[in-house]
Amino acid sequence: MGSMSSDIFVNRLRDAIGQDHVVADPDLMNSYRTDRTTTVEGDMPRVVTTPTTATQVATVVKLANEFKVPVIPQGALSGLAGGADPISGSVVINVAKMNAILDIDHVNLLATVEPGVINRSLKDAVAKEGFFYPPDPGSYSFCSIGGNIATNAGGLCCVKYGVTADYVSQLEIVSPTGEMMVLGRKTKKSSAGYRLAQLFVGSEGTLGVVTKATMRLRHAPAPVAGTVVASFSSLEEMGDALREIASKLSPSLLEVMDRETVLAINSWRNLGIDEEAEAIIVAQSDVKGGEGTEELKLIEAICATSGSGEIYRTEDPEEADALLEARRLALTALERLGPAILDDVGVPVSRIGEMISKIAEISRNYEIRVGTFGHGGDGNLHPTLVLPSRSPDVLKLAERCFADIVTAALSMGGTISGEHGVGLIKREFMKDQYGPLEIEWMRKIKSVLDPNGLFNPNKIVFGDQLV
Fold first, then answer.
1. Contact yes or no for 303/230 (Cβ under 8 A)
2. I want to staple 230 with a disulfide (CB 3.0 to 4.6 A). Which of 9, 68, 308, 371 is the partner?
3. pLDDT at 274
4. Are the C-beta atoms of residues 327 and 373 closer than 8 Å to each other?
5. Residue 64 in 3-state DSSP?
6. CA nearest 416: which of 375, 460, 446, 458?
7. Distance CA 109, CA 105 (A)
C-alpha cells in the first residue's frame, strides 16, 4: 500500500468510514477503471470506497457533495456498456461487499438483498425454499442484483417471465445529495403516486445508489419438459418460425444463434451443433405435466412447417444444460477469435429474421465478421463484431459497422439497447431513439434529483455531445 494521502477529501473519507473501506493506491484503483466493455476504459479515479453499510454510502455521498467530487456507483463490474467506468477526479462507490441476502419472505414471495448479491446466489438461495427468481442474464454467475437493477437486465427467461423491472418491489437508496430513502412498497399493488422505485431501474447510477432491494419471487416452475433445437437454412425461415411460436405459445426459453456464432462455439467446445444452418433456434417449455411435452411438439411442428431441415429434441437434463451453457458462452466463444465489440439492440419479435439478415448484410459490406445471438422470444439481439486487429483503421471501420447495426434496429421500430444499458458506448445514439423533449425531460429529472450534477456525469443523455 502507498503512504497516507495528503488529499483532504480522501483523509476525511478515511476518518468517516474507516481506512479499510478507502482505496487510494493507483495500482489497486486500476482494477476499478473498467467493466467488461472492451472498447472503452475509464479514467483513474481520485479514490475508491468499498462500503459495507448504507450509512457508509450516505456518508461518502455527503462528503462528495461537500467537496463537489463526482460519484461513480459500481458493483460487480460485469457491465457491457461502460456504464460504471469512472472519470478523472471521481470517487467510486463500489458496493460489491454489500452482499448479504437479508430475508426470504415465504408468504409475500419477496427476497430482500443487498446490492452486491450475485444473481445466481439469489436464485440458488430461493430455490432451496421452493421459489424462483427469474431474471437470468448470461452473466448470472457473476453479475450483481444492484447492477441488474441499474441496467434493467434481462436474460434467457425474459420471453416468459419478464425482466428485472418486473421484479422490483422496494428499493432502499441513497440519493445524490446523501439522503437515505425507501421507494416502493412490499404490497402486490399500489396506485398511490408516481412509481419512484421504477425510476431507478435502468438509471445506470445517475440518480443515486441502491443499498437494499426487495425483489419479487415466483413459486418454482415445473421442471423443464425438454429442449428443442431447430436448424434453418435461411434466416427468413427462422424468422417465420419465431413469429409463429410467439403468436401461439409461451415457451420458457426461446434463443437464437446465427451460423457465425455456432462455428465459434463448436470450434471451442465441439458440441456438434449444425454448422451448415444459417440460424439455430433453442426452445424450452416448463409447463406442468404432459402439457410441456405437447408445447415442445407444437414448437417442433411450427419449425418444420417454417422450413427447418433438422430438429432435435432432448429430455436429458445434462444435454439441455450443455446446450444452454453453449448459448451462455456465445460471447466468450466469439471473443476467442479476436478483439470483439458486443452490440445489444432490440427489435419487435416480428422482425428478428429481417434484423439478423440486415446484420449479415452490414457485416459483408464492411468485411467484418459478425456473430449474432440473442433472445429470439423478445427480439433482443447481441451482434458481436470480431475484428482482425485493434489498429486505428480497423477500429474506425468497426465504429461505422456498429453504428449501422444500431441504425438498422431503430429503423425497424427497435431500441439501441435491450438490456445492457447506454453507458459510454451508446450515448451518441440516444438522440436517434428519443426526441428532444423526451431527452429534456430526462435531463430535468436528473437535475432535480442531482442538483450538483455529481452522479455518473456524462452518462446516458447528459454529455455535451447531445446538447
1. yes
2. 308
3. 81
4. yes
5. helix
6. 460
7. 5
Question: What b-and-e string marks burial along 337-362, b requiring 16 or more CB atoms within 10 Å of the CB?
Answer: bebbbbbbbbbebebbbbbbbbbbeb
pLDDT score, position 463: 56
Instruction: With CA atoms as reference, report the closest residue to 432 among 459, 444, 414.
Output: 414
pLDDT of residue 1: 42
**CA 408, CA 310: separation in Å to the nearest integer?**
30
Asked whether the beta carbons of 57 and 209 are under 8 A apart, the reply is yes
What residues in the chain have per-residue pLDDT under 70?
Answer: 1-5, 462-467
User: What is 8-94's CATH number?
Assistant: 3.30.43.10
CA angle 432, 360, 272 (to 5 degrees): 130
**pLDDT of 325:** 81
Domain 226-411 indexed as CATH 3.40.50.12780: no
For the chain, what's the residue count?
A: 467
Same fold, 8-94 and 101-219: no
Max alpha carbon distance in the chain (Å)?
Answer: 72
| pTM given for the model | 0.94
Cβ(323)–Cβ(281) below 8 Å = no
State residue 467's pLDDT score: 30
Helices (H), 291-351: 291-306, 317-328, 330-335
At residue 4, the pLDDT reads 61
Q: Tell me the CA distances in angstroms from 226 to 97, 230, 293, 402, one per residue in order.
A: 38, 13, 7, 36
Domain parsing of the chain, residue ranges: 8-94, 101-219, 226-411, 427-466
From residue 424, give the alpha-carbon distance in Å to each of 82, 180, 192, 226, 278. 5, 28, 35, 40, 32
The domain 101-219 having CATH identifier 3.40.50.10140: the answer here is: no
